[in-house]
Structure prediction request, 153 residues.
Amino acid sequence: MGKQNWVFLALLAGGLSLSGRALASDPFQYIPAAKAAADVADSAKGPATKIYFSHDNFQGLMSGRSKSGQAELHMHWNDYITVVSGVATLTVGGSGVNMKEVSPGELRGDRIEGGKTVTLHPGDIVTIPAGMPHWMQLAPGMKFLYSVSKTRE
Prediction:
């Protein structure tokens, strides 16, 4: 399956309600891969994110990174990630170090200790349940593009 199809499928999946149906008020959306990549190309200062749709119980977005992020924990959101391009190291589980609440139910910290680490490649799909710490790291000079569909717990 081509890169364009992965982006479209990931964004489409994020636009479904918990019952598996789009809301009647949702317009049809098609975001070509080139546009999605361009929307998040400026990631020099940290993750660049473009939210394409957002409802009370789900969101669909594209993110681009050019450097490692902080450890994160979303108390009420499940993340479904599809890697579009680049390689990153993802650590999940374990314990977040120096975690602080940055907004209601959203925590950030320095790192994770004792978690499971995997290397992410284009086409990989990851599910991170609400309440699970996670931390994405990139090698210097690496760019990483991924689609995220979120559902509220």
User: Anything to note?
Assistant: The mean pLDDT is 85. The chain has one domain: 3-152. The domain at 3-152 is CATH 2.60.120.10 (Jelly Rolls).
